[in-house]
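Following the same procedure, the fold was encoded as tokens, giving this record:
***
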Amino acid sequence: MTDRGDRRGDGLRIADILAAVDRLERTLAIGHERFLSEPDAFDAAVRRLEIVGEAAGKVSETTRGRHPEVPWQKMRGFASFAKHEYWKLRPDEVWRAVEAMPAIRRSLSAIRVDERRRHLPRE
């Protein structure tokens, strides 16, 4: 498998995060009780949160610095914890992370607009 990660820009990484957030928001839609009763929903949420965190950790320092309103470190920290200390994950902690996704979507959607504007030719 070839590692293409170094060639991906911030726009693609943010798109990856937003795609994972889409799926996490579907998890949110099933509700807390159903989430707790379905182990596959928990596992899927953890995987998507890992994707969010991994992509967030690869976003450039420049973009992260321009957008301190995004919890870059928290996203990255959760992913690292989930991968390395998976046995300590508690369903309610995962659910709280899923509940944070709509706010993260709003912040990241604004970044996509900012980045596109920055690259538009001036008239």
